[in-house]
Amino acid sequence: MKYRAILCGHEAVDYHSIGTMGGNGVRILHSKKQMLAFFLPGFLLGILYVNFIVKQYIAEPGIFSTYFLRQYAAVEIIAGEYMLYLVRVRLFPALLLAGMAFTKLRKFGAAAFLLWTGFSSGMLLTMAVVGMGVKGIILCVVGILPQFLCYIPACIVVLWYCWMYPRNRWNKQKTVFVALMVLMGLVMEAYVNPIWMKAFLGIV
After folding, report:
1. What pLDDT, on the 0 to 100 scale, is given for residue 52?
2. What is the Cα–Cα distance from 69 to 72, expressed in whole angstroms?
3. Is pLDDT larger for residue 8 or for residue 187?
4. Which terminus of the chain has fewer CB atoms gathered within 10 Å of its CB, N or C?
5. Could you report the per-residue pLDDT of 145-188, keeping only the tens digit for each?
6. Residue 14, helix vs strand vs coil
7. Distances (CA, A) of 77 to 1, 25, 65, 72, 74
């Protein structure tokens, strides 16, 4: 297709470039909607799962019970040992997603990850509301900060690569960014989050 440019004084309007950018914008918006189409149903399923399947068990002592929260506030957390625990818990799903990202199952892996993340989020928030009301939602927010400010960007980079491949290619910059964000998230979760949690529980 030939370029068509209209000169208006000192400005040139390249309609081919504008059309290309517009097409890319539509594809990006469509891809975002597709990704949300997996996360949001998972979130809804998590809510329904708690309300219709496990609601009878919520009354039993759990992470949102007064007893558990008092125990957490009183226990001394050894950051080094907690860090080793987090490495095992956090790195397994991260490495699983990263491994699938470089196979033909990359898009399936991204969809499964979004669905499971949505389900877990919906289930956790519903249990928090049922157990503690509005305080439960605040507790969930405190519980994921500040580490999720690092985990979320790292996940987005990998998920976006999975979803947009081959238009989106992996490179060294992405590797360094994801590794750095995950490492910073682990450090924050081990050394900073327990302080925030205990401070919050001290005023609840």
Report:
1. 86
2. 5
3. 187
4. N
5. 999 999 999 999 999 999 999 999 999 999 999 999 999 999 99
6. strand
7. 65, 47, 19, 9, 9
Q: Which residues, in sequence order, are CB contacts of 134 under 8 Å at separation 6+?
A: none
Q: Is the pLDDT of residue 12 over 60?
A: no
> For 161, phi and psi rounded to 5 degrees?
-65, -45
Residue 28, pLDDT > 70, answer yes
101 closest CA partner among 147, 157, 150, 152: 157
By residue count, the chain amounts to 204
CA distance 163 to 155: 12
* Helices and strands in the chain: count of H runs, count of E runs: 8, 2
Cα separation, 166 vs 54, whole angstroms: 42
Res. 19: pLDDT tops 50 = no
Structure-token match 């491994």, residue found: 99
- Interval 93-115: pLDDT, tens: 999 999 999 999 999 999 999 99
Closest CA to 147 of 98, 104, 200, 83: 83
Residues 176, 90, 136, 116: what is their CA dihedral angle, to the nearest 10 degrees? 90
Alpha carbon dihedral 41, 43, 45, 47, in 10-degree steps, equals -140
Spatial distance between the Cα atoms of 55 and 59, rounded to a whole number of angstroms: 8
**Residue 81 scores a pLDDT above 90:** yes
